[in-house]
Design brief:
It is a single chain. Helices cover about 70% and strands about 0% of the residues. It is mainly alpha-helical and about 70 residues long. It has a domain at about 35-73. The chain is elongated, with a radius of gyration of 26 Å. The relative contact order is 0.06.
Length: about 70
């Protein structure tokens, strides 16, 4: 059922609506990007610490996981 439009209801201001939607999208994109960046940075630090602790000749666990998933090179 389509409801009739009331005469006293103002029309949608599409500029304001579009601006609000674009702003929300940019905020969400920035949040996802920041989460990705800082998680990646944290994992890289963890990987570097693990590699330094294991020594130059030992392979860290992350390489083993990578090889198990993608296969030996």
């Amino acid at each position: 059922m389509i409801l009739p439009k009331r005469d006293d209801q103002p029309p949608i201001n599409y500029f304001v609506f579009t601006t609000a939607m674009v702003s929300c999208g940019l905020v969400l994109l920035a949040a996802v990007g920041a989460t990705w960046y800082f998680t990646r940075r944290k994992l890289k630090k963890q990987y570097d610490r693990q590699r330094a602790k294991a020594g130059a000749e030992a392979e860290p666990e992350m390489d083993d996981i990578y090889d198990a998933y993608y296969g030996e090179e």
